[in-house]
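Revision sheet: structure tokens.
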Amino acid sequence: PLPLSSRFPMSYPQPHAATLAALVLAASAAPSQALTWSYFDTAGYDANGLPASLIEVPLPATLPSDIAARLPEGLDINQNRAEKQFLTDNLGANIHLLEDAELTLVAVGGTTDFANAVGFFSYPTANVPATAAALNTQIVFPNFPALQPGQGVALGRFKAGTSVGFTLVANGWTGATVNPNQPAQDIFYTIRALNPETPSNDGNSHLNAHTVLLSSPADNLLVLGFEDAYRHPSNKDKTKPQRSDDDFNDVLLAIKVSPVSNVDLGAVAALDPVTKDSDGDTLPDDLDAFPLDPERAARRFTPNAAGFGFLAFEDLWPKKGDFDMNDLVVAYRAVETLNARNEIVDLKLIYEIRARGAGADNGFAVHFPGLSRDVVDTSRTTLTVGDKAPVALALESGQSDAVFILSTNVTPLTATGQAFPCSMMNSVAKCPRSPAVPLVADIHFKQPLTRSQLGEAPYNPFIYRTTKRGLEVHLVDHPPTAKADLKLFGTLDDRSDLGAGRTYRTLDDQPWALDVPETWRHPTEWNSITKAYPDFAPWALSAGTTAGNWYQSRMDEPLIFK
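Predicted:
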């Protein structure tokens, strides 16, 4: 076959001499048309379907040949044993962002006679769309073959926890616009379940896959190959739509990512099968999340890359109080950056205050027991509150351990503007719901830390009374900081034994703080967690040996905040 670069431009009918914008408006007004496509470039498109914001993006000179080696023209991927593995599930077919990143979509080439249209969509990684209608695809390239290799469009900046997928409208360019009457069998997505084919039981379970995603981290890019025809398993059934050649190189795109280290490449195959170690850290590029940084190699997420764990606090310690466990509810995700020796280089703590049912003012902080404050690089450590600019995050004074005060008083941060009881945030069922308040701590260290030095996430989060610093509330059996008032332990309802490492427990082993490892709904105001979740008390009394799923099993729904 010809080199990929020589396949642009291809021969297509000349487009009608009308602007795309006018035709889109006309299409939208026609009631008989089933689809109204959204177009990404608000600056418009010319009569050839080229976006006004088109830019030139340098691509590696070897990219076409590297792709041809992986996805040879005319070679059915089912007969290509080495490459059949590329037909993955959604984790390996879409772009999943672990941190914020800039994306640019760039044309590379293709080996088809179709005038295809290409678009993209985004969604929360933890919530994969179940229908095509939920995607909100935005067409970027209405007439893909009109592009030259290296021409692209900047898609913008995407937030951590977002996934980006792609849509191909096969032969969808009409010469004036993208076909508003496009048959569903000729629209293909990087989310396999949305494609028209039904996986067969004859070993062809990936029949509804239409894309291959490959990574070239040293070049800060991903390569996406589309198969642009309906994939029927048999050439002989002439009643079915056109069968594809299954070589997955009909439309070839590069996605430039800045930085590529912010993408989850764990399930994405390497473009270059030859093992390389660009940064010399002993970890091959295809296994290295930071292939050009010798000090960084991987990320470790707690509880996972897309979800949150939940911290919940009762603030009346050492009294048991109403035990509704909603005085402060915080979603959390910890992101540790590791080097090739599995040491921790830096740490990002992502918090979202989800509820505040406290009448008193409380601060929120995190403690790293036994970790000297001297190992923290405070010149690079920052705190971001909401959408404000990052500010320096200092260590708390008077502590030999590393302790960070994330908020001296969460009440102003979570103010609702409502009268009592709706002045409390997301704890009273009848009150308006408030958005979560993000807190992000970026913590850097002067030298890499071992696991035993840093400890395990969520480390030692705690609340304290704003007007009484010594009144701290920690997770069960976690140590207080040096500023805690030790005289409070063992008083009222608390049965702590500091010498034995037994802390923040009642007589019946119930805690004043919880760490729930996944999504959780807290009790409504003034309703005890033991009533909202009947299996909670047996779980606590057994020290966690029974009813481990207490937060998923029996629930008294009227007592749980929705």
